[in-house]
User: Fold this.
Amino acid sequence: MKTIQVFDPALCCSSGVCGVEVDQKLVGFAADVDWARQNGALIERFNLAQQPMAFAENAAVKGLLERSGAGALPVTLVDGDVALAGRYPTRDELTRWAAMAEPVAELPAAGACCSGGRCC
Assistant:
C-alpha cells in the first residue's frame, strides 16, 4: 500500500478542527482521513505550526514552498511524489492513491422490499 503524506498549513491543532471558527473543509477532510485509515490507508499529516522540521527536511515540499510560497499548502505526497497542492484531497482521491477497494453499497436483504426481482 502506498503512503500518503499531507503537509498542512499552520493550524491551531493537529487536525485543524478546533477553535471557535472551524473551517468546514477541514472537518470534511478530517472525516475522510479517519475513514481512509479505518479502511487500511497509510496517511500521515504534518502541521507547519507544530512540525516545521518535517517541511524543511522534505525536499519536494521545501522546493514547492520556495517556488510557490505558503499558498501551495496543503501539499499531498504519495510515496514521496507531489500528487496535489493548494487544496485537500477528496475521499475518492485518497481511495485511489491508497489503492483501496471502492466501498461497495450494501444491497437490501432478500425479500426486504423486492419481489420477483423488482424493487418497489
Remarks:
- The helical segments are 24-38, 52-57, 59-68, 91-97.
- Residues 10 and 50 are 8 Å apart (CA to CA).
